[in-house]
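User: Predict the structure for this protein chain, please.
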Amino acid sequence: MLYLRILVTGATGQLGSALLNQLRWSDYRVKITSRREPDGVGDFEWVYSDLLSGEGLEEAVKDIDVIIHAATSPVKNSKIVEVSGFKEFLIRIQHIKHFIYPSIVGVDEIPFKYYMHKREAEDLLKDSSIPHTIVRATQFHHFVEKVFLSKPVFNRYIVPGNFKCQSVDVSEFANHLIDLVEKEPQGRTDDFGGPDIMTLKEMAELKIKINNEAKKVFSISLPGEFSKSFSDGKNTNSIRKIGKITFEEYLENKING
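Assistant: Here is the predicted structure, written as structure tokens:
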């Protein structure tokens, strides 16, 4: 099994980069693909491909045994990349022995277009004949910080305070995906969640404490089904606290380099 040929899509993203960092020390033969050549390709073979146009996909999947599909597009062209482009991609990979698809906890319960597209992609994969494993993760630490805690306004972090998150370290999830490579395809498998469930208000207060910031937290309540789903913790899984690195440790590691 050590000589499996692995393809990592979305090589320039956060998850793709974490996968490459760990696969760099493996004995697998690794090919990577993305629209932009990542920094530090090293011994990896990089191939240009684009899920929007389909360009380069044939070359990318040639002679590949296992695919870890880290390519995603949360904002721009999400429907094409996640659904229609993904559908065309599946047509080209009928020879694949194992397709590993990272998804997101709550995609079947949270009314958000990107999440709905991820759920559509899951269904496309389930309905295909391709041997696969679908594993959902909770939000990554860096994602929560970037989206909700990166831009204080007038020395205040303004957060929807009832939102719950179970953030997880991206490197731990990447390692979990790599561990699946040598296992049999499992279909939909267990979720991979972070070690703690916290409100965004608690996470903001933790960042202020660790960074010794002269800031405060202003918590607001937002209406609508989307907000209710996050307040109800639909994006969490309390029985799947698999990750070990806490949000606090993530913040401390950033300070310590």
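The mean pLDDT is 94.
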